[in-house]
Amino acid sequence: MAEVAAVAEESTASAQEVSASTEETTAAVQLVATAASSLEREAAALAEIVAGFRIADQEAPRDAETRRLGHSEVVLTVLAIMLALTVLPSPWGAVAVALAALVDVVETVVLIRLGRRRRSPVGADALVGRTAVVTARVAPRGRVRVDGEIWSARSETATVVELGREVEVAAVEGLVLVVRPRPVT
Question: For residue 118, how many C-alpha atoms fall within 13 Å in the half-sphere facing its CB?
């Protein structure tokens, strides 16, 4: 009988420990759920704020030559710096901010240099110097094909250029290409 009482006492103690452990686990799960819910609300609020800044940036007029840093970019940059300095361990937050600033400066310098390159010709001016094939005899007017498009053409030197011969576009006058015969090779 004493053995049964001892076993019953051990079972009761084990059941109480399991019950306490279950209560602690339940409390921990509730705490995590509350924290997750709070984080979801904060993330949704932050997303609304950022979306508001993006809408405001889209509505703000931009100068065609220069693009100023928008309000949302400033807010996101400040937020990223604050997160880097507060979330990352002591020296690494400052290192991350310094590296990000260095990357930003290098990117800006590279993009400025690329932006100062010679502008590419667009439209009909881009055809000057291109090779065309005569589709209708040019004597001194005719037609040529350039990149799959057929254009009216005029001979630069008033010479006759036969069908199928390659010519070079020398100039563009409205919708007429001024062409010169290419040397036969």
Answer: 3
Cα 66 vs. chain centroid, distance in angstroms? 18
Q: Tokens representing 173?
A: 């006058």
The answer to whether 76 and 50 have CB atoms below 8 angstroms apart is yes
Question: What are the distances in angstroms from CA 21 to CA 7, 10, 14, 138?
Answer: 21, 16, 10, 96
Q: For residues 154 and 181, what is the distance between their CA atoms, to the nearest angstrom?
A: 11
Partner residues linked to 179 by β-bridges:
155, 169
Q: What is the pLDDT of residue 135?
A: 94
Any residues with CB less than 8 A from the CB of 173 and at least 6 apart, and which?
Answer: 154
What are 112-132's pLDDT values in tens digits? Answer: 888 777 677 677 778 888 999
Is 136 a residue whose pLDDT tops 90?
yes
Per-residue pLDDT tens over the stretch 95-117: 888 888 888 888 888 888 887 77
Report how far apart, in Å, the C-alpha atoms of 93 and of each of 66, 86, 87, 111, 165 are.
32, 7, 7, 27, 67
Tokens 């010169």 label which residue? Answer: 180
Q: Residue ranges per domain, the chain?
A: 1-60, 69-115, 128-181
Tokens of 78: 């400040």
> CATH assignment of 128-181?
2.40.50.140
